[in-house]
Amino acid sequence: SAELRAPPDKIAIIGAGIGGTSAAYYLRQKFGKDVKIDLFERGEVGGRLATMTVQGQEYETGGSVIHPLNLHMKRFVKDLGLSVVQGSGGLIGVYNGESLVFEESSWFIINIIKLIWQYGFQSLRMHMWVEDILDKFMRIYRYQSHDYAFSTVENLLHSLGGDDFLGMLNRTLRETLQKAGFSEKFLDEIVAPVMRVNYGQSTNINGFVGAVSLAGADSGLWAVKGGNKLICSGLLQASKGNLISGSVMYIEEKTRTKQTGTPAKMYEVAYQTGSETHSDFYDIIVVATPLNRKMSNITFLNFDPPIEEFHQYYQYIVTTLIKGNLNSTIFSSRALGKFDLSTILTTDNSDLFINSIRIVSSVRENNPQPSEDGAYVWKIFSQETLTKEQILKLFLSYDYAVKQQWLAYPHYKPPEKCPSIILHDRLYYLSGIECAASAMEMSAIAAHNAALLAYHRWNGHTDMIDQEDLYEKLKTEL
Ligand SMILES: Cc1cc2nc3c(=O)[nH]c(=O)nc-3n(C[C@H](O)[C@H](O)[C@H](O)COP(=O)(O)OP(=O)(O)OC[C@H]3O[C@@H](n4cnc5c(N)ncnc54)[C@H](O)[C@@H]3O)c2cc1C
Ligand SMILES: CC(C)=CCC/C(C)=C/CC/C(C)=C/CSC[C@H](N)C(=O)O
What is the residue-wise DSSP string for 100-135? Predict the structure, then answer.
């Protein structure tokens, strides 16, 4: 086996969302029990995995659904002894501002006939297109289980799907699907509404995130019982990481004399807790938050060459939870009691003030439970905060409304140039993977990769980084 250097004394992780906490978990696995791991978090553990309470029950307001083939998330749930709840099915409709252009039926066979009648076999072809991409995407688990790491997001994607995967970053989903022969009607009425509910954007997002978004409309989606953020607190605990509640302000490289008496290059992390400023020194840093002024506001001081400024614009989205009785007549002429849709998606129509609205279950239930008067909790995604007039238009009556604003995910604008993972010698950036696609599993994959990369670079194992033709090489291994 390859020779190992003494492990680092101290590692800092900035951000305790799913990216930061899974990085702590994998770094502990790689570097062993003696390294001190500090996680800096200025808000809540969980980050964009968060819940809000409506009349005593908690509901997801950020990252909510997990794909059945998201193997890191599945593994965390198993290792941490958590339970899952299955995504409730329910019927979906698509509203274009005037009428429902597509409406699911509770009869499976009627649905199939409807889909074929309206769109031919495009729905089936779309399913196969996504499945093919997912199939290649799954190669990452094999690479990571053999400890291989990548120094750029582009190298990682190339190892999974070659030039086709990189090409998807450079073209819009619409262009990609048009080339594949999908009709404008199908793109407008089925694909665009899925992009709006999942990423609050149009079909002009890059093809890769488009495919992830379509996977997010697959069946079998699940969530963590009690809230997805339980994974983050669980990983933090399992990794024996030390949580520091504070906001990191700057990082600077300095030469320090270690306890052994030898001088070493270390990173100073300066952070604020309340009105006090503190600082500490680290051998390795993993940045697990999007690096831009609005989101993390971290300055890199005196680096030579300087660390580039990141300007990725993040999409503003509002999640509103409302317990009430929907005024279904604005979507359909069907009598109030006969309206049976539980999700309404919308087409790309700038006159619409919502992206989607759907009935949700609390974090402890498999199925949504109405109150005695038949009111459900509805989750609405919108580009702006809903006004009282808009809420009154949507609901015949409502008891309660709460909202959460997000800079949710990158505003995708292909061609995408992904930020470097290696920002400096021992300074790693995990959130750059969101340029390809933002999802819980993407952050977990980036975290595993960053931990492997940090470990191999620390030990000089360059043969474990950016290996080409990995798929072919590993095919022959047992
Ligand atoms: C409304 C919404 C719905 C979504 N739905 C889904 C979904 O259904 N499925 C899915 O897979 N994904 C979904 N996502 C995406 C998913 O939530 C994110 O991709 C994922 O949670 C990102 O995790 P992260 O740890 O990389 O980043 P974050 O969760 O953003 O974590 C970064 C952390 O760093 C902290 N931080 C920032 N700056 C500093 C600083 N200077 N000092 C200290 N701490 C700092 C922040 O407070 C934050 O907690 C959704 C996102 C949103 C917003
Ligand atoms: C990373 C891979 C291969 C799959 C992830 C698929 C997935 C779960 C995508 C969802 C991404 C996302 C940002 C969803 C936001 S909204 C979620 C849900 N539709 C809701 O209404 O709350």
Answer: EEEE--SSHHHHHHHHHHHHTTHHHHHHHHHHHHHH
